[in-house]
Amino acid sequence: FFFGAAMPSIQSKLSNAQDCSHKIAWAGMAISDEELSCISGDEFKYNIMNQAKSKCESSCESEAYGRDSDTSSDSGSVEVEELPFVINEIITKYGLEYVKNSLLSEISDYVKAKITTEHLEEAFYVVDLGPVFRRWGTWMRLMPRVKPHYAVKCNPSPVILALLAALGTGFDCASSRELDLVASLGVDVSKRVIFANPCKLPGHIRYARQLGCNLSTFDTESELHKIKELFPESNLVLRIRADDPNARCQLGNKFGAESEDVAGLLQLAKNLSLTVVGISFHVGSGATDPLAFKEAIKSARVAWDEGLKLGFEFNLLDIGGGFCGEQDMDGLALAPVADAVNAALNEHFPPTMDCHIIAEPGRYFAEACATLVTNVYGRRQRKTVVDGESKVEMDYWISDGLYGSMNCLVYDHAVLSPKPLYMVPNANQNTYSSTLFGPTCDGLDCVVRDVDLPLMHNGDWVLFPCMGAYTMAAGSDFNGFNITQMKRYYVWSLDSGVDVDLGPGPDPGAGK
């Protein structure tokens, strides 16, 4: 396989390295030994990073990465004989198909082939695990001190969960069902899961105790009393309020202890003989301001010191979610936030501290991996008069809508980007102001309004890229449309389709 994401700069590092054990080439990523040491992997069935390291060391004996010394192409791509074993295992187990890259043009070709060969009429998803894998690599390079715990609620696809589990991520669960999903993959919930719902149903607390998930969050007195009654031996994390006012979804209105309440909550936990092990926060889903993370980490240190005064032995900082899922498919939009996080951590929680740092990314991993494919099955032409001139507008009906995947318009403040896909060439290149309706009988079931689109006919399709986060997870079968059972085709893109020089990773022990 050829991975175009392996840039010449990385290839140069490999060919010039005196000691190949200090650089790992794996699917176009350069990961240093220092970053490797930050990956907690003792409990994993397969240590994928060591496999990658062995592959690199053996290949360097012949001074080439691949089968022999002439397998590197002039374009800077690197031939990889095979993916690491655990990745191949997932590809085989779940029947993933290969596509050349993750560009929409390549996904569109795959979609056309599926529609033709399987005679599809209903909406379906194409889920590309390649971007998930590459974003994991970007995360480990940019924030090696922070272990990701994937927010299951974002997209609970068992295939996505299986990949992330194989890569060694932890998981952020908010309900007994999510705990079940993760446990069913063989994940040790006592070591790799945080029950990060600050206000849990009593039955879910009992179930967490039964499974052995002994790490959870709280932010109120009532939650402490509930935990004292139902799971007194659990380890607790105090969630403090933190806000990015520009985040797509605000959470501070519902969760997080105010600064003036922190000392009282910690004192109550002490009085109840409960064990508090750290501090957490969440700046809001889809955050855009790196400074929000810096301020939140600063506030977390203040709360941390309050706990130390009371005699708690803190060892965990959870910096929550909010990491952007937009821009390029490899997750490099993470860089500005990573710079801010690393600098704040080095200032307030330096590497010399006994502090395990985790985060709860969901959108970052899932958003870019899925493309929703909808069928056009109805059309209406409308004539309007604007400033005395006659204008033609179009209405279309498509096979998914507001009650299905597009619930993200209401609950996640999403902005959708419809992309027409024609099964036969479209001779009419004119564009029309168009409205797309979902399939239900509710007049509110409108996906987009007044967007300029070329003329479409029944049997054409509309693609919606970047639909992996908070879409299918919150869909319903309202009006009898079986959206929750929508087909999903899983693929693995062999490269990102873009040339991005990843450059050197940050020094986790140095401020920026």
Automatic annotation (TrEMBL):
Active site positions: 441
Domain of life of the source: Eukaryota
EC numbers, comma separated: 4.1.1.17
Database matches in InterPro entries: Ala_racemase/Decarboxylase_C, De-COase2_C, De-COase2_N, De-COase2_pyr-phos_BS, Orn/DAP/Arg_de-COase, Orn_de-COase, PLP-binding_barrel
Keyword set includes DNA-binding: no
Protein's name according to its UniProt entry: ornithine decarboxylase
Family per similarity comment: Belongs to the Orn/Lys/Arg decarboxylase class-II family.
Gene Ontology CC: cytoplasm
Catalytic activity: L-ornithine + H(+) = putrescine + CO2
Keywords: Lyase, Pyridoxal phosphate
Orn/DAP/Arg decarboxylase 2 N-terminal domain segment(s): 131-366
